[in-house]
Amino acid sequence: MKIKILSLLLAGALLTMHTPLILAQGPSSQWSAVQAVGIDERLVVKQKDGKSIEGKMIEASETNLTISRDNKVVNIARDSIREIYHSRGKAAKGKWALIGAGIGAGVGGAIGATKYSADSDDSEIYIPIGIMFGAGGGAIGGLLFGASKRQRTLIYQG
């Protein structure tokens, strides 16, 4: 009972510590924040019709945002933009692939170990096969997850 109360108090303390930071970092409704983004910085633009466009910054005038997407220039009217995110950093695909491979190997080995039986002749093959398939599947999953991990900051909300 004491552990539950201590856990709740700790969680409450952590939440109240970070609340002012969350409120202070709220989205800017100022178009000047978009105009301050440097050329070739990665932006994710969510439009009011629900579509998202990802590209590199070219220019932001008072009425339009111009970005480059797949080597094509895209002009987006300011009044059709719902949100703009500034995407920073590199996707850490290799790191997440290694983490996924480790987790997958552990899970695959555990599944293989459940199939192992000392009474059966060829049952020792299940553990290395489980590790091999688990590591491969985990690496693919980690790679896909890592490709999507970039730091996004909301800079405009229209």
Topology summary:
Layout: H1 2-24, H2 31-35, E1 42-47, E2 52-60, E3 64-69, E4 72-77, E5 81-88, H3 93-115, H4 126-147, E6 151-157
Antiparallel strand pairs: 1-2, 1-5, 2-3, 3-4, 5-6
Description:
The protein is an alpha+beta fold. It has four helices and six strands; from the N terminus they run ααβββββααβ. The protein has helices at 2-24, 31-35, 93-115, 126-147, and strands at residues 42-47, 52-60, 64-69, 72-77, 81-88, 151-157. It has a six-stranded antiparallel sheet. Residues 18-28 have low confidence and may be disordered.
Sheet of most strands: 6 strands, antiparallel
Question: What is the C-alpha radius of gyration, as a whole number of Å?
Answer: 24 Å
Indicate the low-confidence ranges by residue numbers.
18-28
SS field, number of helical segments = 4
Q: Classify the helix fraction into a percent range.
A: 40-55%
Q: What is the count of β-strands?
A: 6
Roughly what is the average pLDDT, rounded to an integer? 82
Strand content: 25-35%
What is the subunit organization of this protein?
A: single chain
- The ordered H/E elements are HHEEEEEHHE
Structural category: alpha+beta
**Through-space gap between termini:** 48 Å
Widest β-sheet, arrangement of strands? 4-3-2-1-5-6
Q: What's the shape?
A: rod-shaped
